[in-house]
Design the sequence.
């Protein structure tokens, strides 16, 4: 079945929020409905042209929201949130989404496409096969 990727709108936020909650909860992340909604709203407000819905037969099955930053190698496009409903995983939709984002990054002349991945999840292997590589940098945090 063909999957479509289109710009997300404010009307898509409830569906995307639910997918974020459902899929990341399975990874042990403790999103609340409010924190998930606020995160996606923030990305959409700051980068409306970098937020996309993944649709199958007119139904949202996933999303990819990105943002930009400058770092060592120039302009980076960061895939900051990406998720696909479990029942649609393993069918190539994530790979199509990564190709879409790579093409977008090249067209907009970004130097690097980046993301953060949980090394324990199956998507990590997909990212590696797509060409993402671990760097010498890691996220560190200190709870306050």
Sequence:
């Amino acid at each position: 079945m063909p999957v479509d990727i289109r710009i997300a709108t404010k009307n898509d936020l409830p569906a995307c929020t639910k997918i974020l909650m459902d899929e990341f909860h399975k990874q042990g992340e403790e999103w609340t409905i409010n924190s998930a909604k606020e995160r996606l709203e923030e990305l959409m407000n700051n980068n409306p042209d970098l937020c996309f819905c993944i649709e199958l037969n007119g139904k949202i099955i996933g999303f990819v929201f990105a943002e930009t930053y400058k770092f060592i190698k120039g302009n980076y496009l960061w895939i900051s949130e990406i998720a696909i409903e479990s029942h649609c995983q393993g069918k190539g939709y994530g790979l199509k989404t990564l190709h879409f984002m790579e093409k977008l990054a090249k067209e907009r002349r970004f130097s690097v496409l980046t993301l953060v991945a949980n090394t324990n999840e199956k998507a990590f292997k997909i990212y590696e096969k797509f060409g993402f590589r671990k760097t010498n940098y890691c996220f560190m945090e200190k709870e306050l």
Remarks:
- The helical segments are 13-25, 33-46, 93-107, 122-130.
- The chain is about 35% helix and 25% strand.
